[in-house]
Amino acid sequence: MSAAPQGGRRAPDAVKPSVDAAPAAASSPPARGIPVKAVVAAFVLALAAALGGLPDFQITLVNNIGLYALVAIGLVMLTGVAGMTSFGQAAFVGLGAYATAWVGGVWALEAGAEGAAWLPWAGLLLGLALTGLVAWLLGAVTLRLSGHYLPLGTIAWGLSLFFLFGNLGFLGGHTGLGGVPAITLGPVSLAEPRAMGVLIWVIVLAALWMLHNLLDSREGRAIRALKSGRVMAESMGVDTTAYRLKVFVLAALLAGLSGWLYAHQQRFVNPTPFNLNIGIEYLFMAVVGGAGHLWGALLGATLITLMKQELQDLLPRLLGASGAFEVIVFGLLMLLVLQRYADGIWPTLQRLTRRFIRRDSPSRTHGPVAELPRRTLAPRGEVVLAARGVTKRFGGLVANSDVSLEVRAGEVHALIGPNGAGKSTFFNMISGVDDPTEGQVELAGAAMTGQPSRAFAALGLGRTFQHVRLLKERSVLDNVALGAHRRGQAGWWRSMLRLDRSEEAALLAEARRHIERVGLGAQVDEAAGSLPLGSQRIVEIARALAGNPTLLLLDEPAAGLRHLEKRQLAELLSQLRAEGLAILIVEHDMEFVMNLADRITVLDFGQVIARGTPAQVQADPKVLEAYLGGVA
Question: What value does the mean pLDDT take over residues 104-128?
Answer without folding.
Answer: 76
